[in-house]
Backbone:
């Protein structure tokens, strides 16, 4: 079932608790009482259609918004939303996991410690570069298109082709933690960091879905309308 | 190749007749037996020795849904395909190896069966095959050293195709896809 503007925001969150993360990215504060989605969006100066689009894609893996829906929706919050997500990953989740991982690595023999730390360090750099490319190249291009400019020969197809997968390595890390790191090394810490990784990986997955199902088709429609 | 034996577990004679005709028409498959319910299913399994089970989920008692595979413990490796014509919880349906919907045509059913049988081949090979073989370990070390498939092939005197197959098996067994991840694996297992 898709979410609608008349639903209570609190009901939506309790049907999919991960959506609390989205509130933060839209700068919606908790404590909204019995207010509906429409009311909360209005109070925060947000397009309710756009807010629901994100919530629906985030919640239903099979949901694919139609072209008409994308064209009718006010997309001015799309890029700020994505940038806010990047901030959450880079400034909060990844450093948090890194701190945990460092503690686990400290308990390992020296050569294992180094390889674990290097693995995560390289992963972090990869994610940073991935986001940096979006923020320096893709997003400015979208904003230019929205303003009616041409975007200097770039095309969203290039983004689609180069859009690397940043979830694989996290998955590799979970396999390493579950299967291959000796069992006596920081068992409690490991379970806790595993949960953190699952959560991050799930959220990154949704993030890619939003880029694939909303961002790319939306930009393609603008590109087509210019030709 | 010998036909793959299907055990069909379904109550409706109309559906049984229709589906049997359809499944028998697919090359390499035959419906070897039909059961109306899950009563004494263990005995049927021993006699029939099916390669594939097609089961209407409705026949599974609600309270046993979570553990319905226990009913089939005589043949834990045999894939079970759900035959669906009413609404079920998606989460539960996911615990089947495949899904046939009542509206599916022959082509669709055929591709479902093929997919299920192929997917099944790997895990049913027994747990010892999950461990990397000597050769795979050698390939793994070279992957971790940063060699390309072609370089690995030359170094180990194998074809590029074989090197790629080894790599695929390594990924399948360890669940680790990235070169960086495989390097960590190799180090933790003291292969390097």
Residues:
């Amino acid at each position: 079932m898709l979410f609608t503007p008349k639903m209570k925001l609190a009901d939506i969150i309790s049907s999919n608790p991960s959506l609390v993360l989205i509130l933060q990215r839209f700068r919606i504060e908790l404590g909204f009482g019995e207010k509906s989605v429409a009311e909360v969006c209005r109070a925060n100066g947000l397009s309710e259609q756009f807010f629901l689009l994100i919530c629906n894609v985030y919640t239903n893996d099979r949901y694919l918004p139609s072209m008409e829906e994308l064209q009718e929706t006010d997309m001015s919050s799309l890029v700020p939303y994505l940038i806010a997500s990047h901030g959450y990953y880079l400034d909060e989740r990844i450093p948090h996991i890194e701190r945990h991982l460092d503690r686990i690595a400290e308990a390992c023999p020296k050569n294992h410690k180094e390889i674990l730390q290097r693995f995560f360090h390289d992963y972090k750099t990869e994610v940073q570069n991935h986001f940096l490319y979006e923020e320096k190249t893709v997003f400015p291009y979208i904003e230019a298109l929205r303003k009616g400019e041409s975007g200097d020969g770039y095309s969203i197809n290039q983004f689609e082709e180069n859009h690397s997968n940043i979830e694989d390595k996290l998955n590799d890390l979970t396999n390493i933690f579950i299967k291959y790191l000796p069992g006596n090394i920081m068992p409690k810490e490991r379970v806790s960091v595993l949960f953190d990784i699952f959560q991050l990986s799930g959220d990154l997955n949704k993030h890619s879905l939003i880029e694939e199902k909303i961002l790319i088709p939306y930009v393609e429609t603008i590109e087509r309308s210019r030709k | 190749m010998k036909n793959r034996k299907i055990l069909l577990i379904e109550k409706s004679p109309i559906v049984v007749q229709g589906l049997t005709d359809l499944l028998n028409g697919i090359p390499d498959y035959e419906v070897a037996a039909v059961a109306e319910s899950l009563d004494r299913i263990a005995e049927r399994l021993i006699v029939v020795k099916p390669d594939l089970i097609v089961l209407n989920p409705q026949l599974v008692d609600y309270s046993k849904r979570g553990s319905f595979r226990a009913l089939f413990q005589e043949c834990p490796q045999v894939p079970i395909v759900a035959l669906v014509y009413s609404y079920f919880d998606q989460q539960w349906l996911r615990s089947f190896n495949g899904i046939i919907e009542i509206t599916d045509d022959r082509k669709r059913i055929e591709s479902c069966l093929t997919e299920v049988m192929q997917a099944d081949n790997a895990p049913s090979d027994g747990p010892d095959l999950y461990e990397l073989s000597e050769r795979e370990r050698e390939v793994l070390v070279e992957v971790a050293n940063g060699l390309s498939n072609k370089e690995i092939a030359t170094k180990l005197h194998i074809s590029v195709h074989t090197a790629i197959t080894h790599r695929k098996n390594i990924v399948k067994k360890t669940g680790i896809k990235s070169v960086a991840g495989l390097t960590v694996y190799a180090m933790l297992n003291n292969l390097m």
Q: What stands out?
A: The two ends of chain B are 44 Å apart (CA to CA).
